[in-house]
Amino acid sequence: MADQRTRPADPAAAPVGATEGAPAPLDAQLAAQLEASFAGTLVERLGMEVLTLSPSGGTMRMPVAGSTQPAGLLHGGATIALAESIASVAALLRAREVHGEGAQAVGTSVSALHHRSAREGWVTATCTPRHLGRQVASYLVDVHDEAGTLLSTITVATQLLPPR
Predict the structure, then answer these.
(1) What is the pLDDT of residue 29?
(2) Catalytic residues
(3) Residue 146 and residue 122 in contact, taking contact as beta carbons nearer than 8 Å
């Protein structure tokens, strides 16, 4: 069995669960900025990868390996961390779109419903907007396995903060 942290041949390919009109793949400059900001964080430790991103959402994936509970199933907390991570990064872009460079976004609420779990492979979170205001942005995040099976539905609300 291949290492589950190995990247696919085409990492820019549309992930399972992505919809038409989804944000475009990352440009090199944004990818480098994100990679630097993720160093030493939970995003890095769980092997998460941003595939697409815009102020209105995006897609992120992570390997199941290394994120399981003792029963061998994907840990619900890891799934929530994946969902909150992609929503938070999208909200950061939204905050900067609304308030300018230096603006920040902070999470205010996360609610998850786990439908089923995964034992291997990769899971992909697809983040879509529910409300994109000047002070609050909220997102719905669906997490699918490689076969396209819906694993979790997670809502994430954020507050958009102007620069200090």
Answers:
(1) 86
(2) 84
(3) yes
